[in-house]
Amino acid sequence: MNFKKFSVASILGCVAISFPLIFAACGDDSSSNSSEQSGDDMGVPVFESIDALKKEKCSSENEFETVYVKADSTFYKCYKNKWSNSLSIELETVESKDDLDECNKENEGQMFRVPRDTIFDTYVCENGEWVSDFGGSSSKAVDPKTVVKGSFTDERDGKTYKTVQIGKQTWMAENLNYDDTKKTPKLAGRIWCNWDNCTKYGRYYNYFAALEACPSGWHLPSRDEFLTLIENVGGVGNVARALKSTSGWVEDDKGKDGNGEDLYGFNALPAGNMLFDISFLEGKTAIFWSSTKAYYGESRDLSVFYDNRGGVYSINGDFRVSVRCLKN
Fold first, then answer.
1. Sign of CA dihedral 6, 8, 9, 11
2. What are phi and psi for residue 50, nearest 5 degrees?
3. Sequence spans of domains, the chain
4. How far is it, in rounded angstroms, from Cα 296 to Cα 294?
5. Quick check: 213 and 237 in contact, CB under 8 A?
6. What is the value of pTM for the model shown?
7. How far is CA 63 from CA 66, 225, 284, in A?
8. 147 contact partners, CB below 8 Å, separation of at least 6
9. How do residues 270-326 score in pLDDT, each as one tens digit?
10. Is the separation of the CB atoms in 55 and 48 below 8 Å?
Protein backbone atom coordinates (compact mmCIF):
# COMPACT_ATOMS: atom_id res chain seq x y z
CA MET A 1 0.00 0.00 0.00
CA ASN A 2 1.22 3.45 -0.89
CA PHE A 3 0.42 5.77 2.00
CA LYS A 4 1.68 8.92 3.62
CA LYS A 5 1.39 9.98 7.23
CA PHE A 6 -0.06 13.31 8.27
CA SER A 7 -0.33 14.53 11.83
CA VAL A 8 -2.89 16.88 13.29
CA ALA A 9 -0.06 19.33 13.84
CA SER A 10 1.13 19.14 10.23
CA ILE A 11 -2.38 19.41 8.75
CA LEU A 12 -3.02 22.43 10.95
CA GLY A 13 0.50 23.84 10.75
CA CYS A 14 -0.64 27.45 10.65
CA VAL A 15 -2.55 26.85 13.89
CA ALA A 16 0.48 25.38 15.64
CA ILE A 17 2.64 28.31 14.56
CA SER A 18 0.04 30.68 15.98
CA PHE A 19 0.07 29.20 19.50
CA PRO A 20 2.51 31.77 20.99
CA LEU A 21 0.36 34.57 19.61
CA ILE A 22 -2.74 32.97 21.08
CA PHE A 23 -1.12 32.71 24.50
CA ALA A 24 -0.01 36.34 24.40
CA ALA A 25 -3.51 37.53 23.61
CA CYS A 26 -5.42 35.33 26.02
CA GLY A 27 -4.83 36.99 29.35
CA ASP A 28 -5.55 35.37 32.71
CA ASP A 29 -9.02 34.27 33.69
CA SER A 30 -8.80 33.30 37.33
CA SER A 31 -12.49 32.60 37.90
CA SER A 32 -12.97 28.97 38.90
CA ASN A 33 -15.02 26.66 41.06
CA SER A 34 -12.26 24.04 41.17
CA SER A 35 -8.60 23.66 40.21
CA GLU A 36 -9.75 23.85 36.59
CA GLN A 37 -10.37 27.31 35.15
CA SER A 38 -13.26 28.11 32.88
CA GLY A 39 -10.83 27.88 29.97
CA ASP A 40 -12.91 30.19 27.77
CA ASP A 41 -9.92 32.36 26.86
CA MET A 42 -7.86 29.33 25.85
CA GLY A 43 -10.68 27.44 24.21
CA VAL A 44 -9.74 24.31 26.20
CA PRO A 45 -9.80 23.39 29.91
CA VAL A 46 -6.89 25.14 31.68
CA PHE A 47 -4.99 23.73 34.67
CA GLU A 48 -2.46 25.55 36.81
CA SER A 49 -0.04 22.63 37.12
CA ILE A 50 0.61 18.99 36.28
CA ASP A 51 -0.47 18.04 39.80
CA ALA A 52 -3.83 19.71 39.20
CA LEU A 53 -4.19 17.88 35.89
CA LYS A 54 -3.45 14.51 37.52
CA LYS A 55 -6.61 14.92 39.58
CA GLU A 56 -8.64 15.07 36.35
CA LYS A 57 -9.90 11.70 35.14
CA CYS A 58 -8.45 10.38 31.89
CA SER A 59 -10.38 7.39 30.61
CA SER A 60 -12.14 6.02 27.54
CA GLU A 61 -14.95 8.52 28.19
CA ASN A 62 -12.73 11.51 27.36
CA GLU A 63 -9.97 9.85 25.33
CA PHE A 64 -8.23 12.31 22.97
CA GLU A 65 -9.50 15.37 24.84
CA THR A 66 -6.98 18.23 24.94
CA VAL A 67 -6.25 20.48 27.94
CA TYR A 68 -3.66 23.17 28.66
CA VAL A 69 -1.28 23.35 31.65
CA LYS A 70 -0.13 26.89 32.48
CA ALA A 71 2.92 25.88 34.52
CA ASP A 72 4.78 24.49 31.50
CA SER A 73 2.75 26.19 28.69
CA THR A 74 1.94 22.80 27.19
CA PHE A 75 -1.08 21.06 25.72
CA TYR A 76 -1.85 17.55 27.03
CA LYS A 77 -4.09 14.93 25.49
CA CYS A 78 -5.89 12.05 27.21
CA TYR A 79 -4.65 8.90 25.51
CA LYS A 80 -4.86 5.29 26.74
CA ASN A 81 -5.91 6.40 30.26
CA LYS A 82 -2.93 8.72 30.59
CA TRP A 83 -2.37 12.45 30.03
CA SER A 84 0.29 12.82 27.35
CA ASN A 85 1.98 16.03 26.23
CA SER A 86 1.68 15.08 22.57
CA LEU A 87 -0.94 16.90 20.50
CA SER A 88 -0.04 15.07 17.30
CA ILE A 89 -1.75 11.84 16.28
CA GLU A 90 -0.53 10.34 13.05
CA LEU A 91 -3.14 9.43 10.48
CA GLU A 92 -2.44 7.27 7.46
CA THR A 93 -3.46 8.76 4.13
CA VAL A 94 -3.53 6.98 0.78
CA GLU A 95 -3.40 8.63 -2.62
CA SER A 96 -6.68 7.06 -3.77
CA LYS A 97 -9.25 4.48 -2.72
CA ASP A 98 -7.64 2.01 -5.14
CA ASP A 99 -4.55 1.97 -2.90
CA LEU A 100 -6.45 0.48 0.03
CA ASP A 101 -5.65 -3.13 0.96
CA GLU A 102 -8.36 -5.74 1.34
CA CYS A 103 -10.67 -5.05 4.27
CA ASN A 104 -10.75 -8.07 6.58
CA LYS A 105 -10.85 -9.06 10.25
CA GLU A 106 -7.19 -8.20 10.72
CA ASN A 107 -7.66 -4.52 9.87
CA GLU A 108 -11.26 -4.12 11.06
CA GLY A 109 -11.75 -0.58 12.32
CA GLN A 110 -8.72 0.82 10.54
CA MET A 111 -9.24 4.26 9.04
CA PHE A 112 -7.60 5.92 6.05
CA ARG A 113 -8.03 9.30 4.43
CA VAL A 114 -8.09 9.98 0.71
CA PRO A 115 -7.38 13.58 -0.39
CA ARG A 116 -10.18 15.19 -2.41
CA ASP A 117 -10.04 18.87 -3.32
CA THR A 118 -9.38 20.69 -0.04
CA ILE A 119 -10.72 17.97 2.27
CA PHE A 120 -10.17 14.28 3.05
CA ASP A 121 -12.65 11.53 2.32
CA THR A 122 -12.64 9.06 5.21
CA TYR A 123 -12.84 5.30 4.66
CA VAL A 124 -13.22 2.79 7.49
CA CYS A 125 -12.88 -0.99 7.31
CA GLU A 126 -16.23 -2.31 8.57
CA ASN A 127 -17.52 -5.87 8.16
CA GLY A 128 -15.19 -6.72 5.29
CA GLU A 129 -15.84 -3.54 3.31
CA TRP A 130 -14.25 -0.09 3.04
CA VAL A 131 -17.09 2.24 4.00
CA SER A 132 -17.29 5.93 3.21
CA ASP A 133 -19.44 7.77 5.73
CA PHE A 134 -21.05 10.32 3.45
CA GLY A 135 -24.48 8.70 3.30
CA GLY A 136 -26.18 7.19 0.29
CA SER A 137 -28.60 8.34 -2.36
CA SER A 138 -32.30 8.10 -1.74
CA SER A 139 -35.57 8.14 -3.62
CA LYS A 140 -37.49 8.19 -0.32
CA ALA A 141 -37.33 11.92 0.23
CA VAL A 142 -39.95 13.37 2.56
CA ASP A 143 -42.30 15.80 0.84
CA PRO A 144 -41.32 19.28 2.11
CA LYS A 145 -45.04 20.14 2.28
CA THR A 146 -45.44 17.63 5.12
CA VAL A 147 -42.85 19.31 7.35
CA VAL A 148 -44.22 20.42 10.72
CA LYS A 149 -42.66 23.58 12.17
CA GLY A 150 -42.80 24.48 15.84
CA SER A 151 -40.77 25.83 18.73
CA PHE A 152 -39.17 24.67 21.96
CA THR A 153 -38.09 26.62 25.05
CA ASP A 154 -35.04 25.38 26.92
CA GLU A 155 -35.98 25.49 30.62
CA ARG A 156 -32.32 25.78 31.61
CA ASP A 157 -31.91 29.34 30.31
CA GLY A 158 -35.24 30.34 28.79
CA LYS A 159 -33.99 30.44 25.19
CA THR A 160 -36.57 29.49 22.55
CA TYR A 161 -35.60 27.56 19.41
CA LYS A 162 -37.46 26.91 16.19
CA THR A 163 -38.05 23.21 15.48
CA VAL A 164 -38.88 21.21 12.39
CA GLN A 165 -40.26 17.68 11.99
CA ILE A 166 -38.85 15.94 8.90
CA GLY A 167 -40.39 12.50 8.57
CA LYS A 168 -40.40 10.98 12.06
CA GLN A 169 -37.51 13.11 13.31
CA THR A 170 -37.95 16.44 15.10
CA TRP A 171 -34.86 18.68 14.91
CA MET A 172 -33.90 22.00 16.35
CA ALA A 173 -33.99 24.40 13.39
CA GLU A 174 -31.41 26.66 15.02
CA ASN A 175 -27.91 26.02 16.36
CA LEU A 176 -27.77 25.36 20.09
CA ASN A 177 -26.72 28.43 22.09
CA TYR A 178 -26.47 27.05 25.64
CA ASP A 179 -23.47 28.05 27.77
CA ASP A 180 -24.37 27.74 31.47
CA THR A 181 -21.26 26.13 32.97
CA LYS A 182 -22.70 26.29 36.49
CA LYS A 183 -25.71 24.14 35.65
CA THR A 184 -23.62 21.98 33.30
CA PRO A 185 -20.03 22.05 34.67
CA LYS A 186 -18.67 19.73 31.97
CA LEU A 187 -19.09 22.55 29.45
CA ALA A 188 -16.41 24.66 31.15
CA GLY A 189 -13.51 25.33 28.82
CA ARG A 190 -15.10 23.29 26.04
CA ILE A 191 -17.39 25.85 24.38
CA TRP A 192 -16.74 29.02 22.44
CA CYS A 193 -18.52 31.99 20.92
CA ASN A 194 -17.27 33.46 17.64
CA TRP A 195 -16.97 37.05 18.81
CA ASP A 196 -20.31 38.81 18.20
CA ASN A 197 -21.91 35.95 16.29
CA CYS A 198 -23.38 34.04 19.25
CA THR A 199 -26.92 35.11 18.42
CA LYS A 200 -26.43 34.33 14.73
CA TYR A 201 -24.51 31.06 14.89
CA GLY A 202 -25.01 29.83 18.45
CA ARG A 203 -22.14 28.37 20.47
CA TYR A 204 -19.31 26.18 19.19
CA TYR A 205 -18.75 22.97 21.20
CA ASN A 206 -16.00 20.39 21.22
CA TYR A 207 -17.06 16.75 21.12
CA PHE A 208 -17.11 16.25 24.88
CA ALA A 209 -19.17 19.39 25.47
CA ALA A 210 -21.59 18.43 22.69
CA LEU A 211 -22.37 15.16 24.48
CA GLU A 212 -23.56 17.14 27.52
CA ALA A 213 -25.16 20.16 25.87
CA CYS A 214 -28.65 19.13 24.71
CA PRO A 215 -31.59 19.80 27.04
CA SER A 216 -33.76 17.18 28.70
CA GLY A 217 -35.97 15.40 26.18
CA TRP A 218 -33.44 16.01 23.40
CA HIS A 219 -30.12 14.39 22.52
CA LEU A 220 -27.06 14.70 20.33
CA PRO A 221 -27.89 12.73 17.16
CA SER A 222 -25.95 9.61 16.23
CA ARG A 223 -24.32 8.95 12.88
CA ASP A 224 -27.24 6.70 11.92
CA GLU A 225 -29.76 9.40 12.81
CA PHE A 226 -27.91 11.83 10.55
CA LEU A 227 -27.99 9.21 7.78
CA THR A 228 -31.76 9.00 8.24
CA LEU A 229 -31.96 12.78 7.86
CA ILE A 230 -29.89 12.59 4.68
CA GLU A 231 -32.24 9.93 3.30
CA ASN A 232 -35.28 11.99 4.28
CA VAL A 233 -34.12 15.00 2.27
CA GLY A 234 -33.22 13.03 -0.87
CA GLY A 235 -29.80 11.56 -0.26
CA VAL A 236 -26.23 12.78 -0.25
CA GLY A 237 -26.57 14.45 -3.64
CA ASN A 238 -29.37 16.66 -2.33
CA VAL A 239 -28.54 17.18 1.33
CA ALA A 240 -26.56 20.42 1.00
CA ARG A 241 -29.08 22.16 -1.26
CA ALA A 242 -31.99 20.95 0.88
CA LEU A 243 -30.62 21.89 4.30
CA LYS A 244 -28.53 25.02 3.71
CA SER A 245 -29.93 28.43 4.58
CA THR A 246 -30.93 30.71 1.71
CA SER A 247 -28.36 33.37 2.60
CA GLY A 248 -24.93 33.79 4.14
CA TRP A 249 -22.97 31.34 1.96
CA VAL A 250 -20.09 32.41 -0.28
CA GLU A 251 -19.92 31.61 -3.99
CA ASP A 252 -18.11 28.43 -5.02
CA ASP A 253 -14.84 28.41 -6.96
CA LYS A 254 -16.74 28.71 -10.27
CA GLY A 255 -18.75 31.72 -9.15
CA LYS A 256 -21.96 29.80 -8.47
CA ASP A 257 -24.25 30.92 -5.67
CA GLY A 258 -23.37 28.95 -2.54
CA ASN A 259 -26.71 29.50 -0.81
CA GLY A 260 -29.13 26.62 -0.33
CA GLU A 261 -32.87 26.31 -0.79
CA ASP A 262 -33.71 25.37 2.83
CA LEU A 263 -36.45 23.09 1.56
CA TYR A 264 -37.26 21.64 4.99
CA GLY A 265 -36.73 24.62 7.31
CA PHE A 266 -33.54 23.14 8.80
CA ASN A 267 -31.70 26.42 8.06
CA ALA A 268 -28.08 25.16 8.19
CA LEU A 269 -25.93 28.26 8.68
CA PRO A 270 -22.31 28.51 7.47
CA ALA A 271 -20.80 28.89 10.94
CA GLY A 272 -17.61 27.03 10.02
CA ASN A 273 -15.55 25.64 12.89
CA MET A 274 -13.04 26.73 15.50
CA LEU A 275 -9.82 25.32 16.94
CA PHE A 276 -8.78 26.99 20.19
CA ASP A 277 -9.70 30.65 19.43
CA ILE A 278 -9.21 30.58 15.65
CA SER A 279 -12.20 30.48 13.30
CA PHE A 280 -12.14 28.53 10.03
CA LEU A 281 -14.41 28.30 6.98
CA GLU A 282 -17.12 30.72 8.06
CA GLY A 283 -19.38 31.22 5.06
CA LYS A 284 -18.22 27.94 3.52
CA THR A 285 -19.43 25.10 5.72
CA ALA A 286 -21.89 24.03 8.41
CA ILE A 287 -20.71 21.22 10.68
CA PHE A 288 -22.83 19.47 13.33
CA TRP A 289 -21.55 16.98 15.90
CA SER A 290 -22.89 13.46 16.13
CA SER A 291 -22.54 11.30 19.24
CA THR A 292 -20.77 8.55 17.30
CA LYS A 293 -17.03 8.17 17.78
CA ALA A 294 -14.80 7.36 14.83
CA TYR A 295 -11.11 6.48 15.23
CA TYR A 296 -7.88 8.24 16.16
CA GLY A 297 -9.66 10.80 18.31
CA GLU A 298 -12.23 11.72 15.67
CA SER A 299 -16.01 11.66 15.77
CA ARG A 300 -18.69 11.65 13.09
CA ASP A 301 -20.35 14.84 11.95
CA LEU A 302 -22.85 16.05 9.40
CA SER A 303 -21.28 18.64 7.08
CA VAL A 304 -22.67 20.66 4.18
CA PHE A 305 -20.48 22.91 2.04
CA TYR A 306 -20.78 26.04 -0.07
CA ASP A 307 -20.16 24.02 -3.25
CA ASN A 308 -23.14 21.72 -2.49
CA ARG A 309 -21.14 18.77 -1.19
CA GLY A 310 -22.48 17.18 1.95
CA GLY A 311 -22.76 14.02 4.03
CA VAL A 312 -21.46 12.36 7.18
CA TYR A 313 -17.73 12.88 7.69
CA SER A 314 -15.41 12.78 10.69
CA ILE A 315 -13.57 15.54 12.52
CA ASN A 316 -11.10 15.71 15.40
CA GLY A 317 -12.81 16.02 18.78
CA ASP A 318 -10.77 19.09 19.69
CA PHE A 319 -12.52 21.21 17.06
CA ARG A 320 -15.47 23.33 18.12
CA VAL A 321 -18.46 23.09 15.80
CA SER A 322 -22.21 23.57 15.94
CA VAL A 323 -24.80 21.38 17.67
CA ARG A 324 -28.32 20.54 16.49
CA CYS A 325 -30.27 18.53 19.03
CA LEU A 326 -32.77 15.83 18.04
CA LYS A 327 -35.96 15.21 20.03
CA ASN A 328 -36.11 11.90 21.91
1. positive
2. -65, -40
3. 3-84, 95-132, 144-327
4. 7
5. no
6. 0.64
7. 9, 23, 30
8. 164, 165, 166, 264, 265
9. 998 887 666 778 888 999 999 988 765 567 788 888 888 888 887 777 788 999 999
10. no
